[in-house]
What we know:
It is built from 16 helices and eight strands. By secondary structure, the chain is of the alpha/beta class.
Amino acid sequence: MLYYTLKFLLRITLRVFFNKVHLRNFDKIPAKGPLLICANHPSAFMDPIVIAALTRRPIYFLAKAAVFKSKLSQWLLPKLNMIPIYRKQDDPAQMHKNEQTFEKCYDHLAKGGVLIIFPEGTSITERKLRDIKSGAARIVLGAEKKYGYKLNIKVVTIGLNYSDPHRFRQEVFANADEPIAVSDYYTTYQADELKAVEQLTGRIRDQLAGQIVALRDDDSDELLARIETLYKDKQVREQGLPEEDAYEDLQLTRRMAEALYYFQDREPDRVEAIRNQINTYFGLLERLRLNDKLLNQEQPRQSMFGSNALDFLFLLLGLPLFIFGFIGNILPFFLIDRFVRSQVKQYEFRGAVAMAGGMVLYLIWYIAIGILCWHYLFPNWKAIALTLSLLPAGMWAYYYYIRARRLGKRWFYIALFYKRADLVADLIKKREALVEEFDKALVEYRSWQAANPR
């Protein structure tokens, strides 16, 4: 009961925390039968929350044994379908207990249940796929062996791609792949268990690598992110890609990464020169408190009081609802933000703690507001209506704040354009030079691709 209640609440919370939730191929996840889900692990607790909340079937989780230390966690976590797994890096002396863990997994799969494993073993927020551990393959093949190769277990890999899992109102793309039939490995496993485990682990690795953006290192990630900022919108327009298609967006990023690697391997000096130009450009933007989107448009031609009249009207008419939403939601928002910043030291946990902690705190806050309104203002439907309006009003207040901030930056840019047209023109010139360099590099890369088809 506790699991299903939390799942319901977290499904709602996900839609509030993330601006957009994109799913692909989730309809191909088997609706019944034993299933193992393997996913990449960029965001600690956020990853199992996203998959469990968006998957219809109840899921059991393998969680590191370190979180089961207290009496409360030993009582609570099993009720949330968590099974302890003992990792060598945590305590080598406890590794023998995994035999019991594996037996629990075998029995759960034999009952037609669902398990989720993050085979990278650790969580780091980066666009990279770390070494895939063999535990997932060992569990499903071991379960089949124990039950006479009659379970017909499936393995589904899910690639998790976040714009930023630790900031409010970002995007997540959960990208599932075709199920892997463990039965494909029965014959090999019966002849050579180690070889079958290696083959299945390799297939899991290959599928996950195809579902995410996996970059070589942090420097490549930072450089590609800035190239995407400067050049991705142009490529979306020129290639006629749908703007809301998360899969096509992922594939475009992967193609851009491949092009970057091509030049890094063949012309590292050229890449370094472009990196320096990009860093100079973004450094100027930061000093002027501008962002690239302001320059990635036609130069302002009309006065603020003409083209921006609707903006002023929006701010004026939306202000009362903003004030209501702000007052009704600012305290729990401030408390959870303060707690995460001061107490959550490991970066990978911040998003999940903010989302789950915010869910609990806001639920308590809204119930308290409802009770107070019922007792002291109007003990009727009005108290219920006011309480129910707090969440949408809070979302409006956040949207109003973001839009007002965006408008403020645009007005600042317009003012800067008229006061320092030479400075803005120089920035635009630098940006155009970078885009021109990217165009030239893209032509070269496509010519190479045409001459060297895969």
